[in-house]
Specification:
The protein has 98 residues and is α+β, with helices and mostly antiparallel strands. The chain has helices at 31-39, 56-63, 72-83, and strands spanning 12-18, 21-27, 43-44. Helices cover 30% and strands 16% of the residues. Strands 1-2-3 form a three-stranded antiparallel sheet. 22% of the residues are buried.
């Protein structure tokens, strides 16, 4: 689950491994995230080691006109890393302190 902040569009990311690919089921009320979900195909290990501008997740985010600061694309990359065994499951937090 990703709470992206002030927009209030909570996003649910379900991911699983099929062969050498990670597939996603992305649920959100955000129009841009819905479009991203419709355009993003499976992710492979190779996709996680390309420059940002060639990463399928961030390319789909750009085509879908996601806001630059939206944390959903980064959450998708982190999720793919966990599913592929490249990272451990751990909550990620951005906290603004006054």
């Amino acid at each position: 689950m990703v709470d992206p902040g002030i927009c209030g569009f909570i996003c649910s990311i379900l991911a699983w491994k099929e062969g050498k690919e990670v597939k996603f089921d992305i649920q959100s009320e955000c129009g841009q995230i819905k479009k991203l979900a419709g355009t993003l195909g499976p992710i492979t290990l190779k996709d996680l080691f390309v420059p940002l501008t060639r990463c399928p997740v961030f390319r789909s985010a750009e085509v879908s006109k996601c806001h630059l600061a939206c944390p959903i694309p980064s959450a998708l990359v982190k999720t793919a890393e966990v599913v592929l065994g490249l990272a451990l499951r751990k909550e990620v937090t951005i906290q603004f302190l006054t």
